[in-house]
Design a protein that fits this description.
The protein has about 260 residues and is α+β, with helices and mostly antiparallel strands. The protein is about 25% helix and about 25% strand. It has three domains: about 60 residues, Uridine Diphospho-n-acetylenolpyruvylglucosamine Reductase, domain 2 (2-Layer Sandwich), CATH 3.30.43; about 110 residues, Uridine Diphospho-n-acetylenolpyruvylglucosamine Reductase, domain 3, CATH 3.30.465; about 80 residues, Alpha-Beta Complex (Uridine Diphospho-n-acetylenolpyruvylglucosamine Reductase, domain 1), CATH 3.90.78.10. The protein starts with a strand and ends with a strand. The structure holds flavin-adenine dinucleotide.
């Protein structure tokens, strides 16, 4: 293992944070228990005092086919997974196109688009060195109880990559803002949409310093330049408070604040 300085004001998709020393885990290392693992930081808000951090090194960025299964290392970026499955005509990963992150982040978040989620196509995950079948891992909408660090996952191979499905799912992103964000800030409450509720309480476009609830899609917290963690947390608190008092709905954060 070795340490690396990562500047979260450029590394994280929402461009919030500062340089932090991050422990890089290499193959064969014992994974520390007292550090928080990060992937591509596409779903993170890093505070000025984050917990000690660690990250999987490029040793965990690989794809191989063995015994009829596709095995992917957890540090593999989604863009490279999509290129691989396109080239080898493998179905099921079409929804990962334009979904930024690493495989590890996708597994921890059960990331997906509409009905397509990573757990739907999953066979098993290697967690802290042990292969665990997906049926043994509690999971749901944007949630999976991994209970440790995922270092790789296996998927059944079905031929027939669909470019049509890929294009359809990419088109759903047309209403997403281009400003830096960490994706949807809140999970959608059962039968409703967080964006609709934030808009209904009048916060669409509402700004605090450099951060704002996007004009394009109200559930996206966007950084319009020099935004800070405190500004982001104030906007999150305000949306929660107003949606609770006007609609009686408790919004649950999808973004992970560290
Ligand atoms: C513009 C934009 C659009 C987005 N659209 C979508 C979307 O349509 N659907 C969707 O689901 N998400 C979406 N997201 C959110 C994000 O893409 C996903 O949550 C993605 O899976 C995060 O991956 P990451 O590697 O960046 O994880 P990080 O943000 O680094 O981490 C997220 C969580 O995963 C945990 N984690 C990371 N790696 C591991 C590992 N190896 N083992 C155990 N835990 C781990 C971290 O501890 C953290 O709790 C979007 C984000 C952006 C910026």
């Amino acid at each position: 293992m070795f340490t690396k300085t990562i500047d979260f004001s450029t590394y994280s998709s929402i461009r919030v944070g500062q340089p932090e020393e991050v422990l890089m885990i290499e193959r064969g290392d014992e994974i520390p228990r007292d550090r928080h693992l990060i992937g591509g930081a596409n779903n993170l808000l890093v505070s000025t005092t984050p917990p000690p951090l660690m990250m999987l090194s490029k040793d965990f960025a690989y794809i191989k086919e063995s015994a009829g299964l596709l095995e992917i290392g957890a540090a593999m970026p989604t863009g490279r997974i999509v290129s691989y499955v396109k080239k080898h005509d493998i179905a099921g990963f079409e929804f990962c196109a334009k979904l930024p992150g690493t495989l590890g982040g996708m597994l921890a978040m059960n990331a997906g688009v509409k009905a397509y989620e990573i757990f739907n196509i999953l066979h098993s995950i290697e967690i802290d060195g042990e292969w665990i079948s997906k049926d043994e891992i509690a999971h749901g909408y944007r949630y999976a109880k991994l209970g440790g660090v995922a270092t790789a996952a296996r998927f059944e191979i079905h031929r027939g990559y669909s470019q049509v499905l890929n294009e359809e799912l990419k088109a759903l992103r047309a209403n997403q803002p281009h400003d830096p964000s960490a994706g949807s800030a809140f999970k959608n409450p059962e039968g409703d949409s967080a964006g609709r509720l934030i808009e209904a309480v009048g916060l669409k476009g509402h700004r605090d310093g450099g951060m704002a609830w996007s004009e394009v899609h109200a559930n996206f917290l966007v950084n319009q330049g020099g935004g800070t963690y405190d500004e982001a947390m104030r906007l999150i608190g305000l949306a929660r408070e107003k949606v609770l008092s006007e609609f009686g709905v408790k919004l649950e954060l999808e973004i992970k604040a560290l």
